[in-house]
Amino acid sequence: MANNNSNSEKRKTSKRYTPKQGKLRGVPLKRKNDGASSQNKLHPNGRAASQRSSKDAQRRTPVKIIPLGGLNEIGKNFTVIECSNDMFIIDCGLAFPDSEMLGVDIVIPDFTYVEKNLEKLRGVVITHGHEDHIGGLPYFLKKFPSVPVYGTRLTIGLIEGKLREHELLGSVKLNTVTPRQTIRMGCMAVEFIRVNHSIPDSVGMAIHTPAGVLIHTGDFKVDYTPIEGGIIDLPRFAELGNKGVLALMSDSTNSERPGYTASERKVGDNLEMLFAKAEGKRIIIATFASNIHRVQQIINNAVNTGRKVAVSGRSMVNVISVGIELGYLKVPDGVLIDIDMIGRYLPEQIVLVTTGSQGEPMSALSRMSMNEHRKVSITPQDFIIISANPIPGNEKLVTRVVNDLMKLGAEVVYEKMYEVHVSGHACQEEQKLMLSITKPKFFIPVHGEFKHLMKHKQTAMTVGIPEENIIIAGIGDVIETDGVDMRITGEVPAGKVLVDGLGVGDVGAIVLRDRKHLAEDGLIIAVATIDRSVGEILSGPDLVSRGFVYVRESEELMNEAKELLTETLQTCLDNNMHEWNAIKGKMKDNLSDFIFRRTKRSPMILPIIMEI
């Protein structure tokens, strides 16, 4: 894209954005004047004001916004911001596998584009400490260990815990930042701005670029009575809006919900009522491990009712340990006890905080519901609170756990029975507030499925953002702006990398297809030994079935299948077929046709021929 700046404008831009060689990259700076040039100042109605037409407006050094995750999906947030020979990354998260990804542990972004442009990479900036924003970092830093990472104090503390598990701690550069601090990323600068979310120390970002100011909200809501920390820094967002914001990238998770998201303190009030209701019983509360605000309110109620608090679930133990160590959780001495000690107390003296609010099969609460937890047995003396709403797709898992807990005699409070959960994401009125005070020229909805992005687009149009200035993108799209125009100009490699055990990326579409095939129809292995020199079958074919039929109850079917394979194999030998793959293919095709005719099933068939 052409750059029509005058020489004087070029000198001005160079002085403002270009650091001395090797000196300023990644070094915190004092905030300078971050206003856009005069042609980007905005009228109160949010429309861009210009003394000249856009045709004559001054075009600047192009900036690219490249989402490699987090669009048209929930999780796996990963966005590249690129300008000239510099780029940086916002967040590096993971997603959890869907029902089609059999055996897969987690899903991370495709790092191919970053790898091809590694010499440009100046750092990774993190908005907050949730898994969908930091969970991919260990895999990223294994490939690119020299890249510095920037985050707030709690976020860095949680990242350290993840890197320790992957034996990376000490070999990577972790940098702690504070709200209103600015760091240089080559010709760009990133300013951190406090926001409210369901985890402390969350930030949005103002990205100061040669083309103008970009704002990325991160995950946010507006909470005027937060449990910990300050209120979202609306004055700074408004200040940037008054000076001129080129583009806003804003959280779309709750774009379908009207009104405002309730304050976390509302949960505390309801928990207090439920603690009173549970008098004489043991209280078990399942919530998200990272929701430190919720855990703090549970601890406060436990202290007020004279109960001890135990913790179950590895992620819950890790997060609470980090929260206490860094001062984000305040626990009086003697309140927190080891789970091994709960047998020493009466049920009414215990609160057990656990993972499993989403019904995850291996979580602590799921194991309790199936009586498989080694240290906790559910009885009618248990009052169980599931302090979270099911993530879309997890409803059946949560329902199964609730049913199983109730069958064991426990009283269970779940979903919206007593409003024991509030979201950490902005609803429509808060989204309108963010759009109205930042007054962006362009708007890019982020963090959500396609329906969420489209609904956020409609909300933006109600506050005066022109439809042609709203970009609905997908992962891999290259969004480019020169300060005057913004449009999608191309695509880069993007997608899902599957992590299965220690394997990263070695499970692909073909492996998943085979797993799905095995899961749906089972497997038949046909084994035969032959002497090709005389054209004889020495043994077999023998059939082994797994997940198809129980052989002892289907002897007639299996005997007919053996006869068919014997005939097929002998025909191949009589015809002097020498290509093993051709012989196996013939056996597979004939057996497959026979099985389908008799059962209407299509199991995977694996012929094995041994030659003597």
What does this entry look like structurally?
This protein has 612 residues and is of the alpha/beta class. The chain folds into 3 domains: 63-259 and 424-503, Ribonuclease Z/Hydroxyacylglutathione hydrolase-like (Metallo-beta-lactamase, Chain A), CATH 3.60.15.10; 264-417, Metallo-hydrolase/oxidoreductase (Rossmann fold, 3-Layer(aba) Sandwich); 522-611, Ubiquitin-like (UB roll). Helix content is 30%, strand content 24%. The protein is built from 16 helices and 26 strands. The strands form 5 sheets. It has an 8-stranded mixed beta sheet with strand order 8-7-6-4-3-2-20-21. A 7-stranded mixed beta sheet has the order 1-9-10-11-12-13-19. Strand 24 and strand 25 form a beta hairpin. Helix 12 (428-438) packs across helix 13. It is globular.
Keywords for this entry:
612 residues, alpha/beta, Metallo-beta-lactamase, Chain A, Rossmann fold, Ubiquitin-like (UB roll), seven-stranded mixed beta sheet, 24% strand, disordered N terminus
Summed up:
The chain is of the alpha/beta class and 612 residues long. The protein has 16 helices and 26 strands. Helix 7 runs parallel beside helix 8.
Distance between the termini: 69 Å
Number of helices: 16
**Number of E-type strands:** 26
Strand order of the largest sheet: 8-7-6-4-3-2-20-21
CATH class (first level) name of the largest domain: Alpha Beta
**Major beta-sheet overview:** 8 strands, mixed
CATH level 3 topology of the largest domain: Metallo-beta-lactamase, Chain A
GO molecular function: 5'-3' RNA exonuclease activity; RNA binding; RNA endonuclease activity; zinc ion binding
Active site: 251, 425
Subunit structure: Homodimer, may be a subunit of the RNA degradosome.
Main location: cytoplasm
